[in-house]
Amino acid sequence: MAPMPPIPPAPRRLSTGAIVGIVIGVVLGLPALSGVLLYVSSGGQPGRHHSSSPVPKSERYRLAVPHALLDGKYTLAQDLSQTLNDKLGGQRNGRNEHDMKWASGQYVTTSGDEQETILFAGGYGEIDDPHRALDSMLRGMGDNEGVTVTTPAKEITPPGAQTPVTCEVLGATRAGQANSVVVCGWSDRSTVATVSVPGGGADIDEAAMKTSRIRNETRVRA
Known about the structure:
Blueprint: H1 16-28, H2 38-41, E1 61-63, E2 68-69, E3 74-79, H3 81-87, E4 97-109, E5 117-127, H4 130-141, E6 147-156, E7 165-174, E8 177-187, E9 191-198, H5 204-218, E10 219-221
Antiparallel strand pairs: 1-10, 2-3, 3-4, 4-5, 5-9, 6-7, 7-8, 8-9
C-alpha cells in the first residue's frame, strides 16, 4: 500500500469541517480540501460562548479508533488521531463546538482481490447544535474548487438502525482522472464524525449501513 500523502497545514480557526476536510483531501488527493469550513461551523470567529446547556453526563461520548471495524473486515492501516490533534491542538473551541478532541483512522480490507479503504474522522467534546456541526462538514466539502456534489446530502436510516445517518457523494478530477467518494456522517451533543468510502463503485446505501455500524463501534461512553 502506498504511503499516505502529507496532511496539509490546518487552518488557524476551529472548524469541525476542517478535520474532515483534511482527511477527505487525502482520500481524493486534493490538498485544497484541507479545511475551508471555518466560517460555516464556527461563525467566522472562535469563542467560548455556549448557546445551550452543558451535555448531561449520561449523554457524553468520545470517539475511539479501534484496531478493526465491521467484524474484522477492515483493519487499521494508519491512526491519524495524533497527527490531527497536533495540527489542531490549539483550536479546540469554536462558536458551536467546545473542548474538542479529534479521532481519525484509515482502514483497509483484510481479504479479497482488490483492497478497499474507508476513512473515519471526527471530533468529540461539547456541541451546541449537532445538525449545524454535521451540515457544515458535508456542505462545506462540496464548496471546494474542483469538487462537485454528485448526490446531495440526504438522511438514510439503514435496516435495523434506529438513528439515521446523512450521506452525500462527492466527485473530483485530478490529473485527468475522476475520483468519487461517498461520505456519511452523524452528530449528537458530544460527537460529530464521518465515514468516507472512496471509489466509483461505492454504493450510498451500503455506505450508510457501514457508517451506522461504525458509529456503534467508535462512539463510546466518555
